UniProtKB/TrEMBL annotation:
Signal peptide limits: 1-28
GO term, biological process aspect, one: vacuolar transport
Ranges annotated as spanning the membrane: 274-299, 348-375, 387-407, 419-443, 455-478, 510-533, 539-566, 578-597, 609-638
Name the UniProt record assigns to this protein: Transmembrane 9 superfamily member
Naturally occurring in which organism (per UniProt): Podospora appendiculata
Keyword tags: Membrane, Signal, Transmembrane, Transmembrane helix
Membrane topology: Multi-pass membrane protein
Subcellular location: Membrane
């Protein structure tokens, strides 16, 4: 991976927390699979076009989340002879919004060319209004040359470093005249590197595009575009003729192929990033350690007391005890020993959620591990999406097994329903929402809409691979012995005394949920900006740490809640643990809404629906994930404490 920039601070952290991941933080490497392409001088280097994506407008806010196909009829970009063709892509790449097509640009390796004309287009009123509106709200063109995104050189004022930001503007608003300027000329600057000085083995190591607006009058010759010229604006009351041109400049570069992505991967203020991460890590570790030590001490005392009481009772029977007056009655969590392992309400739903939670948990863990090991470099387009879909599908087995095992342990009887619902309920909800949002995108003629064939592929993978695997897992889960409770459950349920305020469902959920959210809050900001502002996300080292911290916090606070709950003689811990831990997803949704207010300015209805829809979807998955972490840690805890006391 590309963690070069972290190296100094990486060393600081590696010793304590990241022994495994440290080498990845300090070195950059590529895995086989993305082999370099070498070109001879004069050989054609294909330029592919990707979607037109919304970017922050001049006010630094994002005005839209809808992206468009490059060849959307309103843009009228010049097409290659015989029409544009789709370039083969991975499933993950399509799911994550790539729509790569061929283009009419001709780049000949190592040959500078100026003012080549492409085609002439006339924009009529409707099209012009559409394009002008896109320019005003900010959209960028995204091209790929030899797998590298065409970007613009940007200087980070804070650190004084330069980096390449993928994408360049379709047009801009002239601040002096308030005119909307349309870019019709592109200076394509390509950096190339000769492999060990060999003039016949040239590789592309950097792509920059400088778009310009030029109002041509008359025929375009090889020098026409080099002169200063008026800008083009698309008139919304009459037709505007626009001539598209481009120049290509090849610049030799010392950058070698293996490190060509480094310039694209820019960390905005890594110091602040590390600072806030270390900060939250320290707080979380401190909190978890406090919880564990307090809990351990309380438990030790409780267990010692319970066992002493037992001893006294035994002595009583033998008539040898002298001091029974001072000893209190049985109290606290021991009282509910006959009820803690009582089957909770809706065991089927809980088991199905837990199965899916386990599946998500393992998938996320594996994905982050893969990313950390360098398998998911941005040069491998869509690898993140592909690996996630693949892992989720294969791990259906884990989901089925977990759900069946839990259901059997809860003495559930509708095992057929459990087998069927595990692979259908949660993925079904996710797929339906996804499909509905896709309908919105279709209606907007957005390229973000996942094509029908891809949808079909997903449904096929789901039903042909994931569902059978899940059923196989369930079958094994039901064959395995139930996880026996360490204490017997009484016939008649005990009365639950009224609880104090903070242990009531809602306050306890709000209290417990905020801490796991706090652990990932900083990272979430970067993930959100990579999703919505299409920045490249590659800080998997940070992500790995945050995921670990989140799991720890989630487990620790839920266990603490369950301890207090049991002490207050409330034995309905199963759903409480799941829901309380899952509440952190509510905070994530809330965070998304705050992000909406502060960073976005979505004008259209469809944009708002999409944003809320995707936020809900992510929060729902997060709810299942954290809820399951909370439940399983509490289950382990409850089993542990009740098996360590003697019950007659
Ligand atoms: C192409 O143009 C660039 C910029 O003007 C120049 O640096 C480079 O040497 C030129 N390359 C060739 C092969 O002429």
């Amino acid at each position: 991976m590309h963690f070069r920039k972290h190296a100094p601070s990486g060393a600081l952290f590696a010793s304590s927390l990241l022994l495994v991941a440290a080498p990845q933080l300090a070195s950059a490497f590529y895995l086989p699979g993305v082999a370099p392409t070498s070109y001879k001088p004069g050989e054609l280097v294909p330029l592919y076009v990707n979607t037109i994506k919304p970017v922050a407008a001049t006010d630094a806010l994002l005005h839209s989340v809808v992206s468009y196909d490059y060849y959307h009829p309103f843009f009228q970009f010049c097409q290659p002879e015989g029409g544009p063709k789709r370039v083969g892509e991975s499933l993950g790449s399509i799911l994550f919004g790539d729509r790569i097509m061929t283009s009419p640009f001709e780049l000949k390796m190592g040959q500078n060319e100026t003012c080549k004309s492409l085609c002439e287009v006339s924009y009529h009123k409707g099209g012009a209004a559409f394009v002008n509106h896109r320019i005003k709200t900010g959209v960028s063109l995204n091209w790929l040359v030899d797998g590298l995104p065409a970007g613009q050189k940007i200087r980070d004022e804070l650190t004084g470093t330069e980096f390449y930001n993928p994408g360049f503007l379709l047009g801009q608003e002239d601040p002096a005249t308030n005119k909307i300027v349309f870019n019709n000329h592109y200076d394509i600057i390509i950096e190339y590197h000769a492999v060990s000085g060999n003039k016949d083995q040239l590789r592309v190591v950097g792509v920059l595009v400088q778009p310009e607006s030029k109002k041509y009058t008359g025929k375009v010759g090889p020098d026409t575009c080099l002169t200063q010229m008026d800008t083009v604006s698309l008139g919304e009351s009459s037709e505007t003729k626009v001539q598209f041109t481009y120049s290509v400049y090849w610049i030799p570069s010392p950058t070698v192929w293996a490190t060509r992505w480094d310039k694209y991967l820019h960390v905005f203020d890594p110091r602040i990033h590390w600072f806030s991460l270390v900060n939250s890590a320290v707080i979380v570790v401190f909190l978890v350690l406090t919880v564990i030590s307090v809990l351990l001490r309380a438990l030790k005392r409780d267990i010692a007391r319970y066992n002493r009481l037992d001893q006294i009772e035994l002595d009583d029977l033998a008539g040898t005890s002298a001091l029974e007056d001072g000893v209190q009655e049985d109290s606290g969590w021991k009282l509910v020993h006959g009820d803690v392992f009582r089957t909770p309400s809706h065991p089927l739903l809980l088991s199905v959620f837990l199965g899916n939670g386990a599946q998500l948990f393992v998938m996320t863990g594996f994905t982050i591990m893969f990313a950390l090991l360098g398998f998911l470099s941005p040069s491998n387009r869509g690898s993140l999406g592909t690996i996630m879909v693949f892992l989720y599908t294969v791990l259906g087995f884990v989901g089925g097994y977990t759900s069946a095992r839990v259901y059997k342990s809860m003495a559930g009887e509708k095992w057929k329903l459990c087998i069927i619902l595990t692979p259908l309920l949660v993925p079904g909800i996710v797929f339906s929402v996804f499909f509905l949002l896709d309908l919105f995108l279709w209606a907007k003629e957005s390229s973000g809409a996942v094509p029908f064939t891809t949808m079909l592929v997903i449904v096929l993978i789901w039903f042909v691979v994931s569902v059978p695997l899940s059923c196989a897992g369930s079958w094994l889960g039901f064959r395995a012995p139930a996880i026996e409770a360490p204490v017997r459950t009484n016939q008649i349920p005990r009365q639950i005394p009224p609880t104090t305020t903070y242990l009531k469902p809602i306050p306890s959920m709000l209290l417990v949920g905020i801490l796991p959210f706090g652990a990932i809050f900083v990272e979430l900001y970067f993930i959100m900006s990579s999703i919505w502002f299409s920045k490249i996300y590659y800080m998997f080292g940070f992500l790995f740490l945050c995921y670990g911290l989140m799991i720890m916090t989630c487990a620790a606070v839920t266990v603490l809640l369950i301890y207090f709950l049991l002490c207050s003689e409330n034995y309905n811990w199963q759903w409480r643990a799941f829901l309380a831990a899952g509440t952190s997803a509510g905070y994530i949704f809330l965070n998304a809404m705050i992000y909406w207010v502060s960073k976005l300015k979505l004008s259209g209805f469809a944009g708002s629906v999409l944003y809320i829809g995707y936020s809900l979807l992510i929060s729902f998955l997060f709810f299942i994930l954290t809820g399951s972490i909370g439940f399983f840690s509490s289950w382990w805890f409850v089993r542990k404490i009740y098996s360590s006391i003697k019950i007659d």
